[in-house]
Specification:
about 110 residues, mainly alpha, two-stranded antiparallel ribbon
């Protein structure tokens, strides 16, 4: 994957945050959205674009650009091998999301 800029993970300096967002049911959101098809997930389409040349992914056009089925499978495997998920719980996460994103962007 291309070298990512940004602040290091607090306990693993070789990791960088790639996505910050809210989810009331993180497990189901990951399973039903980010680990399925690129047509449903902006995160998947963005990651596919970042590694398109490196991985040789092929795309087709529907109402948006999506990967062909074999490459959807390859991308899911790539996600499992290269990305990690972490989270924190908060009673009112929407109160913090903007501040967390700004803090991470400011440290770039």
């Amino acid at each position: 994957m291309p070298e990512l800029i940004g602040p290091a993970h607090p306990t693993q300096s070789d990791l960088r945050p790639l996505y910050i967002g809210l989810a009331t049911k993180l497990r189901s959101r990951l399973g039903s959205n980010h680990l399925r098809r690129s047509g449903r997930s902006t995160l998947r389409r963005t990651l596919a674009g970042l590694v398109l040349d490196e991985q040789g992914y092929r795309a087709c056009w529907t109402d948006r650009i999506v990967l062909i089925d074999p490459d959807e499978t390859r991308l899911t495997e790539w996600l499992g091998a290269n990305l990690r998920v972490s989270w924190c719980e908060h009673p009112t996460p929407s109160d913090l999301e903007g501040d967390i994103i700004r803090a991470h962007c400011a440290r770039r």
